[in-house]
Amino acid sequence: MNELAVLSKAMIQERKDIILSILGGFIAGIAGVALFSASGYLISQTVFGPPLYTLIVLTSMVKLLGLLRAASRYGERLYSHRATFSMLSRLRTAFFAKLIPLTPGILNKNRSGDLLARIVGDVESLQNYFLRVAYPPIMVVMVFLATVLFTSTFSIWIAVLFVLGMLITAFVVPGIVLLGQRRIHGRVREQRAQLSTEVTEVLYGFRDLKVYGQLAQREEQLQHASAVLAAEQQRAAGHLLRGQSMHTFVTFLVSWGVLTLGAYLIMEGALAGVFLAMLVMASQTVFEEATAMATLPSYKEDSEHVAKRLTETVQPFDEQSSQPSGTLSVNHAVTMELSDVTFQYEGEWRPALRDVSLHILPGSKTAIVGPSGSGKSTIIELLLKLRTPTAGDIRLNGISVKELDESSIWQTANVVFQQSHFFRGTIRDNLLLNGEEYADEQLLNMLAKMQLPDTALTDMVYEKGENLSDGEKQRLALARAMLRKGRVWLLDEPTSSLDYVTEEHVLKHLYAQAAKDTLLLICHRLTGLEEMDQIVVMDQGKVVETGSYSELMGQKGYFYKMKKIEQQMIGEVGV
């Protein structure tokens, strides 16, 4: 499959360890066959009362072969597993690197639990590709070939019997296992993905489920899904066990065949009797290398299925012709221009933006206002190249975003989203996400500017900021953005959870720092917009008005009506 090309590439990169593991496995396999063959020959020789030196030589050979087998088997395990873990590391890094540019769009197509299962479980499952799929056939061919050549020097007919047994264990038994496994393993994979998805959603929504009294019902659903998965896994394990049992049966059948055929050849004078035990012991040992062939189809199908899921996840990234190399300067303010931009979310019946055209001068301050769902936040996502316009063009400093590297845009922008993410750690950890070093005095000074004077840098922050209020999250997110050195500010409702007094103090420091930078502010509140160079009013994905605060108030259009409504509501609250 084409999906497995990435695995083959990873194996090539670890070729040194793979070659060493193959060499160790071959030596271990041959040493095992030689060990048991020598043991059988030693047993046969003792019957005829050989000279003492013969027994000494054979006994010493058995001991040396035992040591050689153990040492080479250890080397095989060491290098094969090191190669496997290195390949997993490369695959996980490569997959995550391809996944990052696809956000947030990919989160709208995949449930978070399913995506997590692919990142963790599916990549982890690929460890079986080398150990259980690619490696066993190599060992079977090499060890069997050497054993057959060795056996043919004593009897060509027993060598033919070995070849026949090899064909049965390498092809017939795996084929029988393959016939019944596809349906069973398909159900196991589906049920495992479904369980991972449901568990993740219950963890995310635990508080709401508890409040609305639905937690017990969801727990029952999880228990049922878990029971179904356990039952399917038990069926799959039973099917693999039957395959291994068939392999063991064929092994003993071949050994009995060697014993019977050897006895007949001895009677006919075509084989010396002293070699019979040696050949029987060799047949018992050589088929150990073919044991993994019984389960190979299962692991192969699993690897192909997992590789296909991972490929489908990042397919949009792979279909891109090339990674653009254009960059933005971090030392100058940026001009932003949208020309007839239209954007429609996948599956939506109407576009979020329709023929939007904007021109934002470098060093200017622009506010975008309008009712919820008018497309304001979508503009920021398009400017950051998190989404691609359905039609139209977006240019930064005269360069189309299609030609700009995403990392260059992100490095230039100081961004605050409506919902900022916080990682489990300290306040200091969450402030220093950009990797730059700041003294504690600088960090504390920034927190004071954001009206967080009593916050210590060592205070703990829970995952997603669960122990912070919405206002604290917004101020901490603003502090984090103000510690960056970008010349573009993209702010999406950064103070919506703050009271008017705190908001005024916070924005004062923000505007002072961004005095010579390009600033784009999305907001619902209309207070304080007098300082904006340009105000853009949007409704239902279209720009309905553009101008300064005084111009829009003078026109007495959409913005004027919104301002009057806000003043009335503030007046009522004051009363």
What does this 3D model show about the protein?
This protein has 575 residues and is an alpha/beta fold. The chain folds into two domains: 2-318, Up-down Bundle (ABC transporter transmembrane region fold), CATH 1.20.1560; 336-574, Rossmann fold (3-Layer(aba) Sandwich). 62% of the residues lie in helices and 10% in strands. The chain is built from 20 helices and twelve strands. It is elongated and about 120 Å long. Residues 317-321 have low confidence and may be disordered. Pfam families: ABC_membrane (PF00664), ABC_tran (PF00005).
Which tags fit this structure?
575 residues; alpha/beta; ABC transporter transmembrane region fold; Rossmann fold; 2 domains; six-stranded mixed beta sheet; four-stranded antiparallel beta sheet; 20 helices; 10% strand; elongated; ATP-binding; transmembrane; ABC1_TM_dom; ABC1_TM_sf; ABC_transporter-like_ATP-bd
The biggest sheet, with number of strands, parallel, antiparallel or mixed sense and barrel status, is:
6 strands, mixed
The CATH architecture of the largest domain can be named as Up-down Bundle
- Radius of gyration, whole Å: 35 Å
In total, how many beta strands? 12
InterPro entries: AAA+_ATPase, ABC1_TM_dom, ABC1_TM_sf, ABC_CydC/D, ABC_transporter-like_ATP-bd, P-loop_NTPase, Type_1_exporter
Transmembrane segments: 18-44, 50-68, 129-150, 156-179, 249-282
GO molecular function: ATP binding
Subcellular location: Cell membrane
